[in-house]
Amino acid sequence: MWTQAESLSDRQIQHIDVSVFTLSLGAAYRLSPYITVFGGYSFFLQRLGCSSTTPDFDADQNRVKVGMQFGYPFAFDLGE
Questions:
Q1: Are 26 and 10 in contact (CB under 8 A)?
Q2: Mean pLDDT of 1-17
Q3: Which end of the chain has fewer CB atoms surrounding its CB within 10 Å, N or C?
Q4: Would you list the domain boundaries of the chain?
Q5: CA neighbor of 26 nearest in space, from 34, 14, 38
Q6: Which residues of 3-12 are buried (b: 16+ CB within 10 A; e: fewer)?
Q7: How far is the C-alpha of 60 from the C-alpha of 45, rounded, in Å?
Q8: Which pLDDT tens digit goes with each residue over 28-70?
Q9: pTM above 0.90, yes or no
């Protein structure tokens, strides 16, 4: 995902232009009908434009998640 936000006017006191790029990957593997192992990776990159009057607050993030999900299917009896 790529997002770009720009200030509406050059006359603003704090003229801020921001560009953001996000990449996410994920996978899941079912070990049994009741157990699933999952993992994922997200990369986040944020850059402020050169015309910004605020200090640079560029950001890079790498996020990794790993887990195991347990569940048991059951039915709701909504009958009267």
A1: no
A2: 72
A3: C
A4: 2-70
A5: 38
A6: eeeebeeeee
A7: 5
A8: 999 998 999 999 999 988 877 655 455 566 778 899 999 999 9
A9: no
pLDDT single digits (tens) 67-80: 999 998 888 887 76
- Measured distance CA(5)–CA(13) in Å, rounded: 16
Q: Pick the closest to residue 60 from 23, 13, 7, 8 (CA basis).
A: 23
Half-sphere exposure of 52 (CA within 13 A, CB side): 15
Q: For tokens 């801020």, what's the residue? A: 16
CB atoms within 10 A of CB 49: 14
Regarding beta strands 59-70 and 2-5, do their DSSP bridges make them parallel or antiparallel, or are they unpaired?
unpaired
Quick one: pLDDT at residue 34?
Answer: 93
Polymer length in residues for the chain: 80
Structure tokens belonging to residue 75: 């039915």
